[in-house]
Amino acid sequence: MIKKIALLLCVAVLIPIGAMAQTLKIGHINSQEIIALMPEVEDLEKKMKEAGDQWEGELLKMREEYYAKIKQFQDTQATLSESIKQARQTELADMEQRIATLNQTAQNDLAKKNQDLAAPILEKVRKAINDVAAENGFTYIFDMASQSIIYTSPSSNDITELVKKKLNLKDRPMATPAPTAK
Question: pTM for the whole thing?
Answer without folding.
Answer: 0.68
